């Protein structure tokens, strides 16, 4: 967070056309800090959590690689092949 505010200060010191924005930074410091925190939090989230794999061995390798960076949540193997069935099993809603 501090580095972002330092970046704004650097821009103010370097570029003269940012003077109007630079004058308003102290007024909006709390809002600016909140937006920086929110932006950094959102950057930590990943929306594409589901990945299909053709083989269980591929899923295991991908899970091992993802666990090295703490991006692994779970792996699910579906045992029954439902591609030839006209409907899902009764216990699946």
Automatic annotation (TrEMBL):
Protein name: Uncharacterized protein
